[in-house]
Amino acid sequence: MFLRQLEPRTARTTAEAMNFALWPFAVLTVLHQVFVKATNFTITDDFAPVYKASLAFLNGRAVYGENFDLTDPHYLYPPSGTLLIAPLAIIDPERSKWCFIALNAVAIILAWYFLLKLFKFSLRSPAAPLFLLAMFASETVINTLTFGNVNGCVLLAEVLFIMLLLKRRDLWAGAVMGLAIAIKPTIAPMLVVPLLRGQWKVFWTALGIPVALTAIAWPLIKDPMNFVHRTWPYAMTARDYFNSSIPGLGLYYGLPGWMILALRAVMAVLVLATLWLLWRYYRHDDLFFICTASGVVLAAEFLITALGQQYYSMLLFPFLMTVVLRNSVLRNWPAWVAIFGFMTYDKWLLDSWQSIGRDLEYLRVTLGWGLLLVVTFCVLGDRYLTARRKGRLDAGLDPDFLLDPAAPGTVPMATALSGRHEVADSLPA
Question: Coiled coil: which residue ranges (predicted)?
Answer without folding.
Answer: none
